[in-house]
Amino acid sequence: MSHLLSVDQFDIQSIADLFALTEKIETAPRGTYKVASSSVLTNLFYEPSTRTSSSFHSAMARLGGSVISINDVSFSSVSKGETLEDTIQVMAQYSDVIVLRHPDKGSAARAARVSKVPIINGGDGVGEHPTQALLDLYTIHKHKSLDQPLSIALVGDLKHGRTVHSLLKLLRMYDVQIHLVSPPGFLMPPELTQTQDVWHRDLHGCIQDVDVVYMTRVQKERIQDATLLQQISNYGISLELMQLARPDMILMHPLPRVDELPTCLDADPRSKYFEQTGNGLLVRQAIFYSLFGMPIPCWRPVS
Amino acid sequence: MSHLLSVDQFDIQSIADLFALTEKIETAPRGTYKVASSSVLTNLFYEPSTRTSSSFHSAMARLGGSVISINDVSFSSVSKGETLEDTIQVMAQYSDVIVLRHPDKGSAARAARVSKVPIINGGDGVGEHPTQALLDLYTIHKHKSLDQPLSIALVGDLKHGRTVHSLLKLLRMYDVQIHLVSPPGFLMPPELTQTQDVWHRDLHGCIQDVDVVYMTRVQKERIQDATLLQQISNYGISLELMQLARPDMILMHPLPRVDELPTCLDADPRSKYFEQTGNGLLVRQAIFYSLFGMPIPCWRPVS
Amino acid sequence: MSHLLSVDQFDIQSIADLFALTEKIETAPRGTYKVASSSVLTNLFYEPSTRTSSSFHSAMARLGGSVISINDVSFSSVSKGETLEDTIQVMAQYSDVIVLRHPDKGSAARAARVSKVPIINGGDGVGEHPTQALLDLYTIHKHKSLDQPLSIALVGDLKHGRTVHSLLKLLRMYDVQIHLVSPPGFLMPPELTQTQDVWHRDLHGCIQDVDVVYMTRVQKERIQDATLLQQISNYGISLELMQLARPDMILMHPLPRVDELPTCLDADPRSKYFEQTGNGLLVRQAIFYSLFGMPIPCWRPVS
């Protein structure tokens, strides 16, 4: 089965294959690949995420497919007294692929165990969000060669960020020097770090050395502790820091942003965060293309 | 006009025609019948039912059509100070067919009187839900010949179940021995019963004799009376009862289930409730095919 | 860029071009023009308007395109701590055109400044709603020649009605005698009036003279003052007034209606309000056709 649950299902070769397919789609005239014609995607979102949902929706539509959007299942009649497993088995009858967003870690794996159609993990709580990590990596790939040594700063709340954890897993496959830049209360979990990583209290320590700055969103609403809140407030990038950065550095952010990424940087050609969002559409098209237009997808089956 | 409001619009011949069309669609390669291309369905749901809405949505998409989903109209701007008749006349301007779900019995007939496009009754309160009854019958037809004598047990809350009432109407057209299995507070309404029906207090009385067991969902949230609630709680099927049943019996349930249908039965090949859900997609495709791909649909006009 | 923000972007010639295209679409067999195939519309509605949203949705679907529906953004995850400008830049990555509905006047212009895809103003508070004015004018055009002198009564709350303000701007391009019919507390703003306009306290003053009666909806819920509320209550058209009107007069209303337009008039062949709603679908198809099927749209660029 072709479920896509984790970045662990990829290696360097399958990523290269997926990115080659992504570029093929990117450069073809619109409407060239109608491989999902007559196919139906169900976006099954137990917590709303209009942004992610819309990106998958558009990707499916561009390949000729249709989309059933179920947002905020927890308030809908789908979940009334029904287990995730039952809901999946019902929606699998109506769909050719299901993108599942769910607050519980491991929910995508539970869904995959009972589904007769491919499950794509669209975020399972503190677990994974593999397509976000892949679109981040694709953005780096578009501007920097992954075959050469790279230097990348991950900045901000590195403790809670699912996005940055999955991206880091992918970056470990390549020759990348990692700079971990965060306040003391927001350090990357030790099990994800390696001895050659460089730790910084703020971006001044490495901004001039890196090829990529990857900012994370500060989710203030989730932080109760006043001391921690003060550490992370205004912990961001600035015009002054951008002036210290390399002319070919690229600046990324998964969006939406709060104060950590001022809008005055939007005009800087090194700012790639809106392009990054657009790359999500392309990578997700490549994923659906893998499912509907190829004998087997490029990623490994779930073990 | 081609409104589909009630199972009363069908007879044995038109059901045979609809099921022949359903099987034609079931066995054809995906994308063979694009008869709804450029057509628009509006799912107009005055009470949310994501499951029914998704099934109609997918059926329309599989035939090449598009879908406008309006869920929970009562909270939407559609209904603001507007009668059902006005809303229908507006939405009929934008649509080629409307599936209406509404809490009031007779609402689908009211809609049909003013609509310039076909209305499909997707459930009108305690009234009817004809496509559900048709998909139930199609599931029986797939596993048992409707041309031979059959024995069918209807189990659970037979008093309030719109689903089971409509199905019973259809079953009366065939040579079917009906077993009515319910606690005393949940009996089938007398006007729907016939003298040759057999009544049981529980499934032990007939499980070994029947070709089909049709379970109903217990809607505990609608039951106020403690005595009644106790009667119906745990009134279901079990592994032990399944061992008494025939090897070629089929077990059905409209889903979602609560306690009356334990998940340990899912692996039993006689359990057909997920297939039943999938048959809903097929029957609804046949209904849309009747509307968009044929000169006239197989069901009788509304009288 | 091809943004459509205001009726000011049109002149007599471009309106004639748009209406010629509208008639071409109206008379062609369904599915003739699939110019939006593989294209994606995002309906980005910061306040819900299922009616407007559905009309644009159906227009896009009829031309072969797909639709992402985001209703009530204010409660969705799209807007969480995010500016309109950021949301637009993200959704523009996923879409080929965005219809924006927003409570703030000028919001569509703000969106257009940052969007890489066309923005269609679907109503910006007390600002404009240009496609509504165009469909109103198209309805007049279908029944009355805009090349001849016309006499038109605008009736009801002329003070707050965005719809009637935009329509009036368009009517000024033609040889039209305007009758302004409203209670004293609901007068047309002076800056929109001209000296040759005729003012009336009620329809009796002009009903026998006019080619078109354009009723407005009374939004009682927005009126606090009891005196004003009394002025506008029951300020509508009636069977008796219709008997005084010309046999070839046409009666229009943007819907939904409240008491000002009794349902007993629906059977009168002069009542065109449901057709008017249907014309919205046609005009919006012509607008999307202009964007996806022609080298440049017929309206002027935003200055």
Structure characterization notes:
The structure is a homotrimer of 303-residue chains. The first copy, chain A, has 2 domains: 7-128 and 278-292, Rossmann fold, CATH 3.40.50.1370; 131-272, Rossmann fold (3-Layer(aba) Sandwich), CATH 3.40.50.1370. The relative contact order of chain A is 0.17. The model of chain A has no long low-confidence stretch (mean pLDDT 94). In chain A, strand 3, helix 4 and strand 4 (119-124) form a beta-alpha-beta unit. The first copy, chain A, has helices spanning 12-27, 50-62, 84-94, 107-114, 130-143, 162-171, 226-232, 239-244, 273-292; strands at 40-45, 66-71, 97-102, 119-124, 150-155, 176-181, 198-200, 212-215, 250-252. The N and C termini of chain A lie close together (10 Å). With 303 residues, chain A is an alpha/beta fold. In chain A, the strands form 2 sheets. In chain A, strands 7-6-5-8-9 form a 5-stranded parallel beta sheet, covered by helices on one side. A 4-stranded parallel beta sheet of chain A has the order 2-1-3-4, with helices on both faces. Chain A contains 9 helices and 9 strands.
Strand content of chain A: 15-25%
**CATH class category of the largest domain in chain A:** Alpha Beta
Largest sheet features of chain A: 5 strands, parallel
**Helix fraction bin of chain A:** 25-40%
Number of helices of chain A: 9
Corresponding CATH architecture of the largest domain in chain A: 3-Layer(aba) Sandwich
Q: Tell me the CATH topology of the largest domain in chain A.
A: Rossmann fold
Number of strands of chain A: 9
Distance between the termini of chain A: 10 Å
Q: Indicate the multimeric state.
A: homotrimer
Structural class of chain A: alpha/beta
- Could you say which overall geometry of chain A the principal axes of the C-alpha atoms support? globular
Q: pLDDT below 50 for ≥5 consecutive residues: which ranges of chain A? A: none
Strand arrangement in the largest pleated sheet of chain A: 7-6-5-8-9
Number of domain modules of chain A:
2
What Rg of chain A, in angstroms, do the CA atoms define?
A: 19 Å
Q: Which pair of chains forms the biggest interface, and how many residues does each contribute?
A: A-B, 25 and 28 residues
**H and E order of chain A:** HEHEHEHEHEHEEEHHEH
